[in-house]
């Protein structure tokens, strides 16, 4: 299948077969994101999806995991998702899990009965862009949810047996608010217990609407030292009822912090301590492609 746009999926899905079921993102309004701005959202025809399944099967493929793309596959109607899931299992009998990105709104738009039947049809992991633990930051960044809605969505998906994985962005609260955001996120995660946390530390790009907020002074970016300090505070405060896999990526710094909490927490904190010591005094911000601060 010819893939339109940029491939976007969590690191944990690198071994999954990626099956596009849509182009773009149904929401596409987050101020920090430019992944889908150039695309016109549309659902892919079921015939096209089935042709891709046939192609992979004829080549000997029978993947154990499938990841549905693109930006928010869980926004599809329950009936359409059910059709796609049934096709996947008919062509790939070894498939044990179908995973995808979701938004809080796409979860809340479905009834508990819908969530139950999608679990029974094979959906397992939903990756949710939580991004921040602060309601005013979520509002400013034009996320499609607040914290209370996120709590309710996670309660409902867990009731259905689905696994919740979180995307966050250190630096998203801006200069001087990293510690506050880390503490709010830690409280949220300690209450909701995700299976995975992926931190795509905020990068700054001139093609997103956040750039205009920076130019007019309504948003002051955190530097990379602040992002590292925020990340450390979050990991320090996480209380693990179950094992949590953490993966922290930084576009501008050559550091990646990943491991399993709680058993690797101290090793991860030590790595961040070294990076923080090296970063002190530099004042570097994560402008992609080295673009200068305006």
Automatic annotation (TrEMBL):
Required cofactors, per record?
[4Fe-4S] cluster
Q: Which domain of life is it from?
A: Bacteria
Q: Which InterPro entries match?
A: Aldolase_TIM (IPR013785), BchE-like (IPR051198), Elp3/MiaA/NifB-like_rSAM (IPR006638), rSAM (IPR007197), rSAM_sf (IPR058240)
| UniProt-recorded name of the protein | Radical SAM protein
Annotated Radical SAM core domain residues: 11-247
Q: Keywords on this record? A: Iron, Iron-sulfur, Metal-binding, S-adenosyl-L-methionine
Gene Ontology molecular function, alphabetical: catalytic activity; iron-sulfur cluster binding; metal ion binding
**Could you tell me which SMART domains the record lists for this protein?**
Elp3
Q: Which CDD domains match?
A: Radical_SAM
């Amino acid at each position: 299948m010819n893939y339109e746009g940029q491939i976007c999926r969590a690191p944990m899905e690198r071994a999954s077969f990626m099956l596009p079921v849509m182009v773009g993102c149904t929401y596409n309004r987050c101020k920090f994101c430019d992944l889908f701005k150039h695309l016109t959202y549309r659902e892919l025809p079921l015939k096209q999806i089935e042709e891709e399944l046939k192609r992979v099967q004829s080549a000997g493929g029978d993947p154990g995991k499938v990841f549905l793309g693109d930006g928010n596959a869980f926004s599809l109607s329950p009936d359409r998702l059910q059709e796609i899931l049934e096709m996947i299992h008919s062509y790939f009998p070894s498939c044990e899990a179908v995973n995808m990105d979701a938004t809080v709104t796409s979860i809340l738009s479905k009834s508990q009965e819908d969530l139950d039947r999608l679990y029974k049809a094979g959906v397992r992991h939903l990756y949710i862009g939580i991004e921040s633990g602060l309601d005013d930051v979520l509002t400013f960044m034009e996320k499609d949810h607040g914290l209370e809605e996120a709590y309710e969505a996670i309660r409902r998906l867990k009731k259905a047996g689905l696994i919740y994985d979180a995307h966050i962005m250190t630096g998203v609260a801006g200069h001087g608010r990293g510690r506050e955001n880390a503490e709010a996120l830690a409280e949220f995660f300690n209450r909701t217990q995700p299976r995975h946390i992926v931190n795509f530390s905020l990068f700054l790009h001139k093609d997103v609407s956040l750039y205009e907020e920076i130019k007019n002074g309504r948003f002051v970016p955190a530097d990379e030292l602040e992002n590292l300090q925020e990340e450390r505070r979050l990991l320090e405060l996480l209380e693990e009822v179950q094992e949590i896999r953490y993966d922290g990526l930084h576009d501008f710094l050559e550091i990646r912090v990943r491991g399993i909490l709680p058993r690797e927490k101290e090793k991860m904190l030590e790595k961040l301590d070294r990076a923080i010591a090296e970063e002190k005094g530099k004042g570097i911000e994560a402008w992609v492609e080295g673009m200068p601060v305006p």
